[in-house]
Amino acid sequence: MPKKINSELRARAVRLVQEHQQDYPSQTAAAQAVAKQLGLGRETVRRWVVQAEVDGGGRPGITSVEHAEIKRLKAENRRLQEDVAILRAATTFFAGELDSRNR
User: Fold this and answer.
1) 35 exposed, middle or buried (CB, 10 Å; 0-12, 13-18, 19+)?
2) How far apart (Å, rounded) are the C-alpha atoms in residues 12 and 32?
3) Which helix (H) or strand (E) holds 16?
4) Pair 46, 80 in one domain
5) Distance, CA of 83 to CA of 89 (rounded, Å)
6) Closest by Cα among 11, 1, 2 to 41
7) Are 17 and 11 in contact (CB under 8 A)?
8) Residue 44 CA to chain centroid, in angstroms?
9) pLDDT, tens digit, 9 for 90 and up, residues 3-21
10) How far does CA 65 lie from the centroid of its chain?
């Protein structure tokens, strides 16, 4: 199970990578140095930086807000599909009860 990392540490890691990126040959190298300093995974920090760039409009992709909305809509869609399945089953059951051939 992944450990929960507070948003302040995440923001700090992103800020450090962005501030010190020019000191390293690549963004990945900067992310690796910051991750080591903060005791985090290199790929985790790199993904946070990329997502911060997307959220800031500097890179194409799905923003965090859009991702949260998509996730919410998918969950709502799943619940509604379950509701429809239950209603269909109930309709079939009650239609069978009302059919005079079943008596």
Assistant:
1) buried
2) 14
3) helix 7-20
4) no
5) 10
6) 2
7) no
8) 14
9) 778 889 999 999 999 999 9
10) 9
